[in-house]
Each structure stands twice: as C-alpha cells, then as structure tokens.
Design goal:
556 residues, D-Maltodextrin-Binding Protein, domain 2, 21 helices, 3-stranded antiparallel sheet, 3 domains, alpha/beta, formyl-coa transferase, domain 3
Amino acid sequence: MGTSRPPRTGPLAGLKVVVGLLAAVLEARRSGQGQVVDAGIVDGALSLMTMHYGSLAGGLIGTARGSNVGDGGAPFYNVYACADGGWVSVAAVETRFFDELLRRLEIPASLVPDRTDREAWPRLHQALADRFRSRPRAHWCALLKGSDACFAPVLAMDEVAAHPHMAQRHALVEVDGITQPAPAPRFSRTPAGPVRGPRGPGLAGRLVRARTLRGLERHRRARRGPRDEHDRRTPMNRHPSRRTALAALTFLGLPAARADDATPLRIVVPTPPGGTNDGVARALQPALQALLGRTVIVDYKPGAAGSVGSAQVARGKPDGSTLLLNNNAVLINPLIARDTGYAMADLAPLVVAATAPLVLICNADLPATDVRGLVAHARQQSRPLAYASAGGVGSLGHLAMERFAREAGIQLLHVPYTGGGPAQLAVSSGEVACVMTTLNAALKGQVEAGRIRLLGVAAARPTPLVPGVPPIGDTLPGFALDAWFGLLAPAKTDPAVLGRIESALLAALATAPVRAQLTTIGVQPVAIGAVAFQARVTEESRSWAEVIRERKIAKD
C-alpha cells in the first residue's frame, strides 16, 4: 500500500484479506488516509492456478476437459472399479512410480513407451481398467501395499474407521453411537476427549424443523383462515416427537408419511424363516418403520432356491410398497435355471446391507490342515474328492467350489444337499470331504468339538471376521468371495421413489442398533448404495456366467 506495486500476499483468500487489512492499517497510520481493501475467494483460487497458467503458456497442458493429468484425463492419475464393486486410486505421476505400477500389474511397458503421449492415454486407461476390474479391491491392496506405485483404496465412510492407518492414529471416535472425526491436532501431554454437543437436535436440525413447521403453518392458515384458540393444540403441537421425526426425515431427504398412507412396506424374504436373509430383514424392520412412519412387514415366499419370491417381486406392482431381500442367489438363478420367472433386468438393486465371508471346511480325519494341503491331497486321489453344497445345484456354495477347483487345477465331485445343516453334517460324518459355506454358530461349535476343520477363508488377505484363519488367497492369489445380503425393488419403480427408499435404508444401516443386530447374527454390516450394488451385480453376473459355462453347470 502506498506504492505503485501491489503487495505480495499469501495464496489463500483469507490470508489475502488479513495481510491486506494489516497493510491498509499501516498505510493509514503513515499517511493518515484510508482505502478500500478488496480480496475474494477467486483471488485465492487464482493464486493456486499460477503454475497452471505457466504450464498452459508453455504448452504443457491444454484447455480441453479430460486432456490433462489433474482433470481425470491421465490414466495414471485416476480411479478404477474393482471386481467386487470397490474402487482404487492411482497417482503414479513420476516416471519411476509409473514404471513400478505397470510392473506390479504385469502390464507391458511397451504398451505406452511415453506416458506423456496423450494419444496413448485411452489405450493405457483401458488396460488399467480391465486389469483392476479382474480382481477385488483387497487383492490390489495386498499386491501394491508398501510399493512406490502411488496406490490407495477408495474407502466408503463406514470403512474408514477400520482402516489400519486410521485405527492406529485413532482418527475417528464414536460419541453417543455416532462415528465422527476425533479432535485434532493431537497433543501428547494434554490429549483432548471427544466433545459432546447439547441434547436434542442441533442447529441444522432446528433450522430444518423450524422451516418445515412454518411452512405447514402457512399452508394451514391459507386453507383454514386465522388461527383460533383451539388451533393452538394441533396434533403437531401435541406430539413433539412427531415434529422431530418430521424434521429428521426432511433433513435426510426422505418423505414424511402422510396421515392417510396406511400402505405397509413389504419385504419379501424368498427363503424359510430363521436363515440369514430373515435375520437381516428383521434387523432393518424397526428402524425402517421409524424412518418411514409406516408398517414394515417381513413376508416369506420360499421355493426354488429363492426364485419364487424373487419372481413375485420382479413381477409385482412398481409402486415402492414391495422390496426383495435376497443374497447372491438372486443373480445366479437366472444364469443357471431354464425358467426362474424373472431376469435380473426386472429388478433394481438398492442397497447391500451386509456381507459374510465364505469359509472352506473339511472332515477332521482328512490329511489336510490348510488349503495347500487339501489341494495336494485332491491331486493324489484316483477319483475326484466329493464336496457338499448347501442349496444344491447353482447355489453360491456350489459355484464357489467349482471356481476353487478350476483355479486349483483339481477334480471335485459335487454332492448337493438341501441346506447348510445337512451339508455340514455330511462333512462331519465323512460322507463328503469338504464344503464352502458361511460361518455360523453351529459350524463354530463343530470346529471347536474337533469334528470338522476350518482350512481357510475365501479372501485375499486375513479378515477380522474369521480371526486366525488364513485366506485362501495365500494359496490361490486373488481368490475372494463373500455372500452379500441386499434389497432390490421392481425395476420399473419411479426413480424418485427408489431414491427415497435407498436413503431410508442407508439411514437405517447407519444406526447403532441395526449394526449391532447384524453383527449378532454373524454378518458384517455395510451400506453399499445402488450404483455400487449395480456394479457388483454386473461384475458377478459376468464372472459366474463364465464359471457356469466352463464347468458346464445346468439346473433341470
């Protein structure tokens, strides 16, 4: 100030304002004259763009969207989908990082002799996309961990707290059942505890509620005229909890239930009561009722490995009153059966509520203590080893073992059973050698009793859900399977209705009681939305169709 040259200030708008004010005060003291200080957010943003304007002048970058390293154009600075619906990110900008990425992914460097050649970027992008899509996210995390490939998994919000780096730093805490960032920065001598806010709705909730109630009051006045003494005790005033629920629904973007809307929400479970599908539905039921303000009914429609109930929902009225809660079988059945009464295109995936890893178990008398030992034992036999499946031909356990046999290069004989109990009994009695299924209390009891042996978990790396059990991926790299439990709706349902139901389901899955109940029944609570769920369905359909075709699997 006071010279012909403008002052040099920091790169952020706020810093520019502070420095500008200080300079103006000093100039006012020196000259006795004041002046207007002008600094805005755009100035801070433009300061950060100084390097880019230099690069543009030098021809190093262009103005077309998607043609540069920093705007998604460069394949080595991008995000990619994986086989399980997860995502990963790479930022291998420097040459040695880029070379390390290609080497570990086994992509020939000759594909892109010069990584700065923009004409080669589409070819490299496709190669990277195909490579990452071939395996689940956990596989790439294990392969690239600790390398110079500048790689990182893209985590959903419910995964962040469990990430080893975040857990070691205690970066997230849980206060009153709500996971949230811990106080930062952290001090060794005077650690800060979590800050609890006041009871009741916060500022945002109060503003939303006040706005909603004012709108309702204006609407009421327009219809009924000035308020009289009787109107001061409307149903909304008599029930504060109803006001709070309305505000919560509005804040979440969910529709408040109309007083005359008595249509229940029906969750169709296509398997008998008592199974995991049933347990997941029951865990969600009370939370959905509270969020939607309508009755939620769990309706059992078992038969044909889940096809009966699935077909009923697929052909049902697309009005948002009926959902399907099923597992991987919902996409496998149309691939393997002649007529299931529906196709996956008839259903709209909404939310995956929970997952459970598959485990490989064998008879305790079998001379194998791990997956490698089972594979070696199978190769020494003159006849194929017999294995059980829970649910018969086309079940997840059946296809999982067929994939296991294919990747291990061994011959196995399929012996179908009607359910998990009979299949596990067949293994413990020695009728068959092994089975791949989800872990439950009954199975744990047989393992502890020494009647069966737990060989491995179908994951690329160890999982806390099955502590102490080695991953099958140690023997068969990339072998990772899990059972998922998701909710779907008729495909022709209005997208706006689907969006509201998806929001309600995700909100329910964010509550501590629902997550605790899911953990109790032996599954891992997740909250995978419609886009990632659809991606998982598409990829699994492709993967299982390949196994079915190669292994010549068919259901009469």
